[in-house]
Design brief:
With 173 residues, the protein is α+β, with helices and mostly antiparallel strands. It has one domain (40-172): Umud Fragment, subunit A, CATH 2.10.109. It has one helix and eleven strands. It has a seven-stranded antiparallel beta sheet with strand order 1-2-11-3-4-9-10. Strands 7-6-5-8 form a four-stranded antiparallel beta sheet, with no helix packed on it. Strand 3 (73-78) and strand 4 (81-90) form a beta hairpin.
């Protein structure tokens, strides 16, 4: 009789452990889905437009809910892909680019851009400068200015807030 009680107790303990493990896996899965579905978005750099800040195939972790500000690196949806660029200006800001000297000004002030690979000499043809950024939009450029399709490009132009998928938080090693 004592063996039957012990065996039943062992079976009950084993069942409880399995249920506990199953509930733990469910909780971990829900947390992971929540974190990556609501808070974080991974992104992979494709190309050289963000050199030397980020290289081709670097993996970035982005915050989905953060509102981008000037200087932030963002990912945004363009057609069926995500692009990685730096926010140069936000709604209401005026951007001017002197393509001869490579100097970018924001609201009349020369930008200090220690992150760029080289000065901005490449004109993509979208705007006549200076240009003012419309409401709920951003003017973005790659850090490798002369090898970047960005807001200067006819196809991309201003990036709307609806296109923004996240602000880069950190790079994965």
């Amino acid at each position: 009789m004592s063996n039957d009680v012990e065996t039943t107790a062992q079976v009950n303990t084993a069942k409880k452990e399995k249920i506990k493990d199953f509930v733990s896996y469910i909780i971990i899965t829900v947390v992971i889905v929540f974190v990556f579905g609501v808070i974080l978005k991974p992104a992979v750099v494709n190309g050289e437009s963000m050199n030397d800040t980020y290289q081709n195939n670097d993996v970035l972790m982005c915050l989905r809910q953060k509102r981008p500000d000037k200087g932030d690196v963002i990912i945004f949806k363009w057609n069926d892909e995500y692009l990685v660029k730096r926010v140069i200006a936000t709604a209401g800001d005026t951007v001017d680019i002197d393509f001869e000297s490579g100097i970018v000004t924001l609201n009349g002030n020369t930008l200090s851009e220690p992150y760029i690979k080289e000065p901005t000499h490449e004109r993509e043809g979208t705007f006549e400068y200076p240009v003012t950024v419309p409401e709920d939009s951003f003017f973005v450029m790659g850090d490798n200015r002369n090898y970047s399709a960005d807001s200067r490009n006819d196809l991309i132009g201003f990036v709307s807030k609806e296109q923004v998928a996240g602000v880069v938080w950190f790079e994965l090693p």
